[in-house]
Amino acid sequence: MNFQLTEEQEMLRKMIRDFAENEVAPTAEERDEEERFDREIFDQMAELGLTGIPWPEEYGGAGMDYVAYCIAVEELSRVCASTGVTLSAHTSLAGWPIYTFGTEEQKQKFLRPMAEGKKMGAYGLTEPQSGSDAGGMKTTAKLDGDEYVINGSKIFITNGGEAEIYVVFAVTDPEKGAKGTTAFIVEKGTPGFSFGKKERKLGIRSSPTLEIIFENCRVPKENVLGEVGEGFKVAMMTLDGGRNGIAAQAVGIAQGALDAAVDYAKERKQFGKPIAAQQGIGFKIADMATKVEAARLLTYQAAWLESEGKPYGKQSAMSKLFAGDIAMEVTTDAVQVFGGYGYTKDYPVERYMRDAKITQIYEGTQEIQRLVISRMVTK
Ligand code: CAA
């Protein structure tokens, strides 16, 4: 057993940490306040080769593994969770299904420009009436000649409006339930494809979350992703890996909050000594650090399993469940360490606490992770 990151992974971490601290962190608070997405940051990530970390070079990727990808999401989220999820949705939710189920032509046409960062990806599964019960979707796609005509809407779409390439799921055979669902690739600008309400959110406020709408939107048959009728499987398998990306985001948020709390606790003096040297705070920091470390290990383990081609669905759900919960706990404790100051916008910990909450909700709520894990453990 080897817990050592490779030299390449260590170098990647250092490179991303420099980029995150110098280019992403300085505007994180302002972008959060203004609910402003900055495409330039995505473009900079593209220049650094971060927009296609796990895809082979033949598709414009960096040819690295999923541990490297998790390190990237973690380091970005350590300073700005919105930037972390931009990369995560782009890579895990849009890139992964195209890489895994796409034809060679689809990979060259869609995955390559995404990996090169010329285009951004998004994923559309959730609908107003179907969240946890993803199989209950109502969006339809009917074959008409050589085209499918899509009607319906999807909500809570991360990267919505900004992304150029959307992996969306629609019912092609209503009689067959989950087996009557198909995945499609839809490009921004396709007639009948438009953007609806932009959500105003508690956290990850500089990541755009939009409704996407299909009104007689015609997409060519060639844009079917995977087999007709296999869409639910594509959606579920995509989430298996996506959840690990969210775990990495949660680890990053928790680490960012822990680092801020440690720095503050060493500086802040009460009763004649730094609060870090007082047991109430020192022990809290010990618990926070232990939780972050455990969450990171689970997260990297799931990513390693996927990279090795071994089953990883259970570990991925576990990493998301555990890391999401500890991110919420650690960020709440970080606010506590800062006391009254932590509750103000003068310090970043209130943002970390707001950002952490979503990791317990999206890509399957914690309750859905428990459902997935319990089914796998007991089957
Ligand atoms: N891999 C492969 N196949 C899978 C699978 C997986 N992980 N999970 C399910 N399937 C298959 C099953 O084998 C079954 O196929 P068969 O009938 O051939 O056996 C079929 O899919 C139906 O499966 P279930 O009976 O398990 O389906 P279910 O209705 O009970 O639902 C669920 C399962 C786990 C609850 C699922 O609906 C689910 O994951 N819900 C949560 C949805 C979710 O995570 N949404 C997040 C949206 S994306 C988001 O948040 C993105 C963002 O913007 C960041």
UniProtKB/TrEMBL annotation:
All residue ranges annotated as the Acyl-CoA dehydrogenase/oxidase N-terminal domain in the record: 6-118
Cofactor(s) required for function per UniProt: FAD
Keywords: FAD, Flavoprotein, Oxidoreductase
Reactions catalysed according to its record: a 2,3-saturated acyl-CoA + A = a 2,3-dehydroacyl-CoA + AH2
Ranges of residues in domain Acyl-CoA oxidase/dehydrogenase middle: 122-217
One Pfam short name: Acyl-CoA_dh_N
Any GO molecular function: acyl-CoA dehydrogenase activity
InterPro entries found in the cross-reference section: Acyl-CoA_DH_CS (IPR006089), Acyl-CoA_Oxase/DH_mid-dom (IPR006091), Acyl-CoA_Oxase/DH_mid-dom_sf (IPR046373), AcylCo_DH-like_C (IPR036250), AcylCo_DH/oxidase_C (IPR009075), AcylCoA_DH/ox_N (IPR013786), AcylCoA_DH/ox_N_sf (IPR037069), AcylCoA_DH/oxidase_NM_dom_sf (IPR009100)
Family membership: Belongs to the acyl-CoA dehydrogenase family.
The name this protein goes by in its record: Acyl-CoA dehydrogenase
